[in-house]
Amino acid sequence: MAYAKQACDSFVAETQKITELQEQLTRERVMHLEGFVARLTQTTLEIRTIRH
Question: How far is 26 from 43, CA to CA, in rounded Å?
């Protein structure tokens, strides 16, 4: 019974670590995407300004 509890506790702890890493990776990807969209938007606005 003790082994089963320890295995379950270890599984939960490792799952939480993986979840935290996935959240961090997602945040980083979103930040990169936000930067890309901001640059794209700025470039689009600059092009529109030049054309008009």
Answer: 26
